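re: that chain from earlier
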Amino acid sequence: MKSIITFLAFSVLAFGQNSKPEHKIGEKIQGNFLGNGKKVTAFVIKTKEATGNPIENGTPAEFEIRFSDAKLKPIKAGCCEIILINEGDLNDDGSDEISIYQAPMNGCTYTMTTYSFIKGNWIKIVQPFLIPTGCESISEKDLLNRVFKENMAIYFLEKDMSTENGKLIKKKATTNH
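^ sequence. v structure.
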């Protein structure tokens, strides 16, 4: 009897853990980016230090996303600070996709781009879109909800800048691959 209860408890826990992909966010995240069921760590590194203000002919810092598994090529991200988001499997290929939320060189309008590792290369599956912040921080919940899958299609939420309150508009992602 005890072994049956243990088996049922383990089955419920295992099912609950696999029923919905975990979204992770930060400068270091984990995901099934290769589609083999193994967790790989993605992390942001600064590859070049900034020298002065880029707006005044200085040189901006440069960043790259690297992975704990050498099979995954780094993603060159350019300037500036980055937050990574594990989006789960958006395109039903068995691997997690990764979004890059990136600060601007100057100002308060960030960009967000979503990549999938396809045939050995990182391919943009959601083209870069702008996220104006009004120089206020954006919540993790808001970032996690910006890119999503609905009815077998990938969408993103973009602010409508033609309205006073900047209402979010759902747009279907288009890919070039």
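The first strand starts at residue 24 and ends at 26.
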